[in-house]
Specification:
- The structure is a homotetramer of 349-residue chains.
- By secondary structure, chain A is α/β, with parallel strands linked by helices.
- The first copy, chain A, folds into 2 domains: 2-115, NAD(P)-binding Rossmann-like Domain (Rossmann fold); 124-283 and 307-343, Dihydrodipicolinate Reductase, domain 2 (2-Layer Sandwich), CATH 3.30.360.10.
- The first copy, chain A, is 32% helix and 32% strand.
- The first copy, chain A, is built from 9 helices and 15 strands.
- A 9-stranded mixed β-sheet of chain A has the order 14-13-12-11-7-10-9-8-15. In chain A, strands 3-2-1-4-5-6 form a 6-stranded parallel β-sheet, sandwiched between helices.
- The first copy, chain A, starts with a strand and ends in a 15-residue tail after the last strand.
- Chains in contact: A-B, A-C, A-D, B-C, B-D, C-D.
- The B-D interface holds B 44, 224-225, 243, 245-246 and D 44, 47, 224-225, 243, 245-246.
- Chains A, B, C, D: This is Oxidoreductase.
- Chains A, B, C, D: One of its GO terms (molecular function) is nucleotide binding.
């Protein structure tokens, strides 16, 4: 039984408490928040959980094995570092921290102490993304040619971060989860339509060593909500629409065929295949429930989470590179490769 | 009554012949093609139209006032130049020619001789694009923030041109028709998933002096056909789906509101408006019929067409710049401004 | 301030408690349920509300002005009658009772005592149905030609009632709310695909004195969920899709035009109008919140609710007639007219 | 090589001529029409085909083996009978004739002479309906529970026939093609919203001996076009949307499961299965091309067509019964069983 302390009981914290509390292998020991009203809301819903306005109490409590952090982004680094220093495993809401330097320090600290550091990239734990990953691992798509995603709606302009830190972060975490390789460079463009406000619309292209390319389009100023991703492979192609109530994933047995001609390698004729479409049944299990199970499992066994610190780091490195490219009107920014692909973790324990 | 000679009776030529033949103010004098079988097909359908395998005969015929060219792209420049030199008005299938230098020579020649030079950017003459233009000219959208378009499907890989010359050309012509300003720079990325084949997938961002931005996504390797354009304005926003049988254009009375605060110009609160959606009735008139009427009218009155030589030139300049940017992984390429906006023609005569 | 007692804290009761508790003009005095576990769930969420397993306590409590009943259908009659006899106003979950005879006794009792009797036809209080009613009252649709509705999905087979008492009841309440007249006869067909189970699929036609016709199709055994209603008028027509997240109502400016010819009244030529489509913005206010406000208002002022006892009676009479017609393979069953249309109440107070 | 004579070159005739002309096993000998303008249109398109305004010439021509009739409905009987009497095989546009008595005489005459009599129920030859039939014959759906279809749009009010003779006829032919049994009774309701005009909206229920039920909803006064059919089986269910450009058929692996309990046959618990959805690739072959091939094959081999005279008769008997039920406000009308199911023909030769 893993003892959990949760910091922050605002928007996301209650979901963490609810899921850790209903998980058979974890127990919520205490909740910390600076706001007394939020603590009493917690007490009303979960009378058995103690609360405190002093985060340090959780760190001192030997029954707390792990800390889940759901506070504003600018506090992530300091809180996570303190928790690691106190010997606690850590789960942090995305993004892991404000800079890649901060994340590197957290990753090093967790490594040094042999503690689990996991970032809450919730989309990876949705049944839809899990199903796409499963299809890719079964090689049903063939060689992956592209990932092309649009994530837009009207609203939730934020004043401190731009649209890529808010929305593209989801796609970047999915891309690195699904693909076998890391991007080597990024080109991005963005624009702000409100004077003095950060970019509310952006387009990001990720380049890879292989033929694969990824593109992410994000927009806070769209008349309709769009959550649509195309994954194109040499064998099959997927359309993933997260707004569909049931058929979120459609797998198309479509593609091109190449008929090489002997006399000239450069000549070819392209043919087209059009086969069946198939929408696999997608479980309706709550993503956060799977994520909490995975975190508890990793803490118990020492396994590395699929959204471990390194994956959180890579997402932030890409966001930083994309921000530089945006400032430069699309000029490509190279990404350094920082981890062997073999360290990639894909299976939920 | 304007006499028309048509060169090329392959895929598009028959449509030109049919529309010029049924237009009250034009008469098709002759059709030229190198393929005798195509000429007899023409004779069967239009026994009253004479045919020839010698293009020069059309040029020599004094009853021919204008030449419409529907031949392969690499012949456009030579044929159009010969027609202008023979004193004929000219309508050319898109793209006008293979390079901007060629187009400039055609534009100059037409100008010098006072002849009409028009490029067949058919989409401009669709009732849907005409309706969007009308809404913009009525200032129903307010300040235009963005144009964001996706044009993809499976198929029609071409071996001589890449996907932007095939598909993005439509959006580039629409963008310059709808917007009040020319782009000042372009950033584009593209990739080929078939070795030895030109790019089959590309994303283009156009930058403008104003806050406006345009983005075009094109893909020959998509499992489903998409023809969707978002136009975002400060007052209203449009979703234009060309695959919808009837409600191609949806106008959303949605957007953000800014509540400036006196003490600090940098502070503002963003509010959201969500009003009605409205799908104006769209005529089902064939685009080419409107286009042919417009060409005949311009030839008769000397008015400049909405898709005149300069607009064809600008489209090709953007395609050339986008190609350079693609080769450079998104690095921005500046576009020179070549014409005063006042020369823009928007109303169909 | 109206004091409310709520009977039944199962599926629907908690929603009633929450909405009456947050309403400014009502106070929840007590909740009654036979199940102690449910009562303690209530206490945990609403510590300020007293609970009892003895319904009679609520009736004896002078601070209780009105009783809301959310118990199984077979208890509705007895509980509602007791409440009326105790001088309490009553709100009952649909259907009001098991037979029209029972409902008539409740209506008479409420009338005799001058008490408010309201049935919880929640759909009438949805912003979508309110908007359709508003458009009809503004005569935007013209003469109403038809109401044609499909309500189907997979699941929730019930063992005690058939599909029309479960699903068609919604449409029957909407029909009588929207239309200016009562049906005069009903023809219905139904079938059961599970031996020993009540009908899981049915089609009902309602006949009116006028040209208007209503049709309701319901199905518990559909592969996909459908909630779609067409309302056709002489001027405009509506498609109402309750599953659409935002554009639930689409108003089509379409229809036919009749060109009478003088010489012969029987000859006419029918023309077709195809105009704009318009999707009015629909509020997202919770239907039950509006309903609770309306009940409290009616109790306070003595006004008749839009879903008063008579309207609940009429719905049950139609259900009973439809059941007889189903048993007779569609043979029409006449409905007696029981109330002057002038007693119809349409405006939410 | 089968020689074909075609009567009527109006709306449908040209399609028959084109398809018989391009079929390798048939040759169009002549076309007859009373309108000289139509005949010259035919000559222009098909100079090799002789034309006549005298139908009798086709009958006398020994090179004509079969007659295809595409004239107004009231002429079908007389023309078809004359053709059969002249020893010609016959293909007639739907409906076969105006009354079941007429059809019976044609069926008898064809039988007596051993000639092929086929009705042009084009929908049976669409790749979509062929695919559904294939799935049923493979027993992929299990026991068929229902067929429920909606066919509506705005327009094409007809003055001589009502909406069921115009639209429901398609569904009735599909139903008898797909199902293993004939309906035993019909209940139908209909209404006319234009004084003096036939019914423009109708709903038909077909009853079968088994649990199966069929329902058809047709409407000439709908704001949007709908062509949607649900086929529910004990194993799988189909949604067939004829307006979908590519995924016309969706097969849902969904349904209910019954858990019988030993002690009481009347008690059961219903469970729900929700599995994958699958959209088989549908050929884009023109239905009329398949139909013409089938007719030619049946004429050549003496095989009975899937849309033979008996199937045309059954459709008209159901239409007549439905008309009587409509006049009687839904009262059921029994259908007599006129043919052993073993005579049913399902496979396209």
């Amino acid at each position: 039984m893993i003892g959990i302390g949760i910091v922050g009981y605002g928007y996301w914290g209650p979901n963490l408490v609810r899921n850790f509390a209903s998980n058979d292998s974890s127990r919520v020991i205490g909740v910390s928040d600076l706001d007394a009203a939020k603590l009493s809301a917690c007490t009303r819903r979960h009378p058995e959980i103690s609360t405190t306005s002093n985060f340090a109490e959780l760190l001192r409590n030997p029954r707390v094995d792990a800390i889940a952090i759901a506070t504003p982004v600018h506090t992530h680094f300091e809180l996570a570092l303190a928790a690691l220093n106190a010997g606690k495993h850590v789960l942090v809401e995305k993004p892991l921290a404000q800079t890649s330097d901060q994340v590197r320090r957290l990753v090093d600290e967790a490594d040094r102490r042999g503690l689990t550091l996991m970032v809450d990239h919730t989309f990876l734990y949705t049944p839809a993304v899990q199903k796409i990953c499963e299809l890719i691992l079964q090689d049903q798509l063939g060689e992956i040619f592209y990932y092309d995603s649009t994530r837009s709606s009207l609203g939730l302009f934020q004043s401190d971060v731009n649209v890529i830190w808010d929305l593209a972060v989801h796609d970047l975490s999915i891309i690195q989860y699904l693909l076998d390789e890391d991007p080597i460079a990024v080109s991005a463009t963005g624009s702000s339509h409100v004077t003095g406000s950060p970019e509310n619309m952006a387009h990001i292209t990720l380049f890879f060593e292989s033929k694969c390319v990824a593109h992410v389009s994000v927009n806070w100023l769209s008349p309709i909500k769009v959550r649509q991703t195309f994954v194109g492979g040499s064998k099959k192609m997927i359309v993933y629409d997260d707004l569909e109530p049931t058929e979120k994933i459609k797998v198309y047995d479509k593609g091109i065929t190449l008929n090489a001609q002997a006399e000239n390698a450069h000549q070819f004729r392209i043919g087209y295949r059009a086969g069946d479409m198939w929408a696999p049944h997608i479980s309706t299990k709550e993503a956060l429930q799977s994520e909490v199970e995975h975190f508890v499992e990793c803490v118990s066994t020492g396994a590395s989470p699929i959204s471990n610190g390194l994956s959180g780091l890579r997402v932030i490195e890409v966001l930083e590179a994309a921000s530089r490219s945006i400032a430069d009107h699309g000029a490509p920014v190279r990404l350094k490769q920082q981890r062997p692909i073999s360290e990639r973790v894909r299976a939920i324990a």
